[in-house]
């Protein structure tokens, strides 16, 4: 196991440890929460030793890729027959196809906006949330969302689907943006376990160029205006952590050829073999060099992907990746 992998696993485990301790402190010592915390504590104690990631059945080590998806794994596939393994592969393939079917149109042009995105799971399914749509009764507004569910794999993909269904259903109720995100947060707090939550940037863009965004603990969206890049700070906690927390809305106006870039940490935290991360600064420098006056939304997404690939070289990504661009465009009807 490489040093970079160990550090990534340590960050995941420490994040879960902090979250569980906070939840237990606030809500009382429920047995299942205490049990989860003990699992996390034990995994941290074993991290870096030969005992970490060792299967309790066959005594062999769980694959590093599977541990990155779930750092608490204590079993490999040794107990499954070949038939069961094939059935599991078929289920995962079906889950992948279903998730792909939930993704929006990758080239939206509406209400004076053009939008494009790239969505790339690290495994069969993704915990990234990516959505882009218009309501049938409101053709002059484009809704957009990019989020990242804690963890990976099937559990994270299920929570991603839950987020999409929640936002699409609540948008139709005509709620203010901050209240809408607060409602989704309350649903997740009631419905999920403490180790699963999501960061997200959710917003809407109007036909006049006006944009509203709620950033729930997510990577800062980047506003590109004539080569100048502005990062939009978070305006609230990730959804699914604690209830009764307010969210604030960032409001801005984009003019012709201005653009907005949203992404998940699969971009900024992508690591080379030497452990060097891609980072937000590199994204900002790239955008400042590539004027949105001459590059459409699709070209901006492609430029970010190309720069990431050049940075990584032969190193493989360990996390899901989503990049979305919205650009104010004359004639995008």
Give a written overview of the molecule:
There is one protein chain. The model has no long low-confidence stretch (mean pLDDT 86). The protein starts with a helix and ends in a 5-residue tail after the last strand. A hairpin with a 2-residue loop joins strand 7 and strand 8. The strands form two sheets. The chain has a six-stranded antiparallel β-sheet. Strands 3-4-5-6-9 form a five-stranded antiparallel β-sheet, with helices on one face. By secondary structure, it is α+β, with helices and mostly antiparallel strands. The chain has nine helices and eleven strands. The longest helix is centred in the first third of the chain and has 25 residues, at 3-27. The protein is globular, with a radius of gyration of 21 Å.
Name the CATH superfamily classification of the largest domain. PPM-type phosphatase domain
Uncertain stretches of 5 or more adjacent residues: none
CATH-derived topology of the largest domain = Phosphatase 2c, domain 1
Shape: globular
Number of domains: 2
Major β-sheet strand ordering: 1-2-11-10-7-8
Give the integer mean of the pLDDT values: 86
- Rg measurement, Å: 21 Å
User: DSSP helix count?
Assistant: 9
The amount of helix comes to 25-40%
Total number of β-strand segments?
11
Quickly give the structural class: alpha+beta
Which percent band covers the strand fraction?
Answer: 15-25%
CATH class of the largest domain: Alpha Beta
Calculate the terminal CA-CA distance, rounded to whole Å: 51 Å
Task: Specify the biggest β-sheet.
Answer: 6 strands, antiparallel
- Reported CATH architecture of the largest domain: 4-Layer Sandwich
SSE order, one letter for each helix or strand: HHHHEEEEHHEEEEEEHHHE
């Amino acid at each position: 196991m490489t040093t970079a992998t160990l550090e990534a696993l340590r960050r995941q485990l420490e994040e879960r440890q902090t979250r569980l301790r906070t939840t237990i402190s606030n809500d009382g010592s429920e047995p299942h929460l205490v049990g989860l915390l003990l699992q996390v504590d034990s995994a941290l104690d074993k991290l870096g030793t030969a005992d970490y990631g060792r299967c309790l059945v066959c005594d062999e080590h769980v694959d590093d890729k599977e541990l990155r998806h779930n750092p608490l794994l204590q079993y490999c596939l040794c107990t499954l027959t070949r038939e069961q393994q094939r059935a599991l592969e078929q289920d995962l393939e079906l889950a992948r196809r279903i998730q792909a079917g939930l993704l929006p149109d990758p080239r939206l042009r509406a209400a004076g906006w053009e939008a494009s995105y790239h969505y790339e799971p690290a495994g069969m399914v993704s915990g990234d949330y990516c959505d882009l749509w218009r309501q049938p009764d409101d053709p002059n507004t484009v809704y957009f969302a990019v989020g990242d569910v804690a963890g990976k794999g099937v559990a994270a993909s299920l929570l991603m689907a839950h987020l999409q269904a929640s936002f699409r259903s609540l948008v139709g109720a005509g709620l203010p943006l901050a209240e809408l995100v607060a409602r989704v947060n309350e649903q997740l707090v009631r419905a999920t376990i403490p180790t699963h939550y999501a960061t997200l940037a959710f917003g809407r863009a109007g036909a006049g160029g006006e944009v509203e965004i709620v950033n729930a603990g997510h990577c800062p969206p980047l506003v590109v205006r004539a080569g100048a890049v502005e990062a939009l700070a978070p305006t609230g906690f990730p959804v699914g952590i604690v209830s009764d927390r307010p969210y604030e809305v960032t409001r801005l106006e984009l003019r012709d050829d201005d653009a907005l870039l949203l992404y998940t940490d699969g971009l900024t935290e992508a690591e080379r073999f030497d452990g060097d991360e891609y980072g937000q600064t590199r994204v900002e420098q790239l955008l400042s060099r590539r004027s949105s006056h001459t590059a459409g939304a699709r070209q901006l997404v492609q430029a970010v992907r190309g720069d990431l690939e050049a940075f990584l070289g032969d190193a493989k990504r360990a996390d899901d990746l989503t990049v979305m661009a919205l650009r104010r465009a004359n004639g995008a009807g």
